[in-house]
Amino acid sequence: MLDGHSSWTAHLLQNASLILLSLALLPLDTFILCASYALQSLLHENISRRRRRIRRSRTFYPKTILVTGVGMSKGLTLARAFYQAGHRVIGADFEPYGIPVNGRFSVVLSKFYTLSRPDSKEGATHYIQDLLSTIRREKVDLWVSCSGVASAVEDGQAKEVIERRTPCRSIQFDVKTTETLHEKHSFIQYTKRLALPAPETHDVTSRTAVHRILNHSEDKHYILKSVGVDDASRGDLTLLPRSSLSETYQHVANIKISEEKPWVLQEFIQGEEYCTHALVVDGEVKVFVACPSSELLMHYEALHPRSPLSKAMLKFTKEFVARSRAGMTGHLSFDFLVDETTSEKGLEKILYPIECNPRAHTAVVLFEKYSAEMTQSYLAALAHEMNGAVNGVKEHVVVPTYPAKYYWVGHDLVSLVLHPFLRVLIASPGSLRELFEGLYLFIQHLLFWKDGTYEIWDPLPWWWLYHVYWPGQFLACILQRRKWSRVNVSTTKMFNC
């Protein structure tokens, strides 16, 4: 994997090779696109017929839903869900470098709007104005925010303005809640104030502060995490202190820590990592799923809702919401580490929340088969419920029981097949075994898993993602001489370095 220290020539070759890969696969993927259109008449007719039947029902009240972030899999999934539920869907997103995002070409959107990206000079003024104009022009009833990590707080600002100036409701936390949950250090402090378990975490604004804590660590290990968005350091999970004092000092010396750029030093929990996605409406958890996680999660398998771990994470989420500010509405996602300890009762597992994402999680793709129940939960934000029922559906937490498993074919092709193949060519130790294992996983995903973007009745966003959007991004990197270390295909996030 390339990083900021890799030569520009290496980064140039990386971008050029990925553009060539897109061109090489263009005939095959165009055939799949055309075949999908040829076959979709049967399936899409069923969806259209079901949609018309829903809209003709006397008990159905169609709404206009604005979904932002439709260039990401999570936003596209939600837009498709509201469309299948019979509602009118408006899409919006940023379009970096003028490259159209794939979601704008989905058949589920009545209209698409390009949004101004918040920046350090203008702030979120133009972004909020774009949202306001769209909501007023389209008479939007509900705004479903699917923000990325870089615009979470700005979405909180937008929510307050929108609900103050229009009748539109927002699935988005307010500014104070978003800021508290978005930052690692303030989230841990808030969790502790709620009397919920949390790992030992320290705010540090100097290298001296780091060494002071490490010198009194008493056999504990820690990980340094940047407080703000820092793509270059996100993948650095180096355990501190290192094996020797000199290695520890050398590692810390390479990190820029100051009052202006604070970090957190968080206790390392040895255990499995999990993530959750939840929808909270008026202080109640409406939708929930938990799944195994990793530092860059690109494969989604839901835990069964009756599993002890899933129950424990749902219980934590409910308690967190119950003890927090009343009436909160938005998406709530946690990252957990599970610590195993031995006691008189035997082996015990303790959940430690290490991070919170106050926004929609890509794990929402796991609700694709449960879109009707999920959209009903969102609509609870629009009206007071009568005896716990909305449109005839009794109130309960919607969880996917037996969902499909999800992957992204572009990511798997590169990470499981092409990268190991290149390692074989340079005779890297263990590369042949890695290639065969990667091929086995890739074929297994291709046959038995589901792509997180592709739908046979809505195939163009999938084709556009791999043959227009990403090649355009790689070309922009070449022209601007930008370096990157990784990309997240599902969120269209590029990690600069």
Description:
The chain has 497 residues and is of the alpha/beta class. The protein is 42% helix and 20% strand. The strands form six sheets. Strands 3-2-1-4-5 form a five-stranded parallel beta sheet, sandwiched between helices. Helix 1 packs antiparallel against helix 14 (460-480) and helix 4 runs antiparallel to helix 5 (175-182).
Q: Label the structural class.
A: alpha/beta
**What's the mean pLDDT score?**
91
Which range best describes the helical content: under 10%, 10-25%, 25-40%, 40-55%, 55-70% or over 70%? 40-55%
Q: How are strands sequenced across the largest beta sheet? A: 3-2-1-4-5
What's the end-to-end separation, in Å? Answer: 12 Å
Question: What percent strand?
Answer: 15-25%
What is the number of E strands?
18
Spans of 5+ residues with little confidence (pLDDT < 50)?
A: 385-389
Count of DSSP-assigned helices? 14
* Shape by Cα distribution: globular
Radius of gyration: 23 Å
Largest sheet: 5 strands, parallel
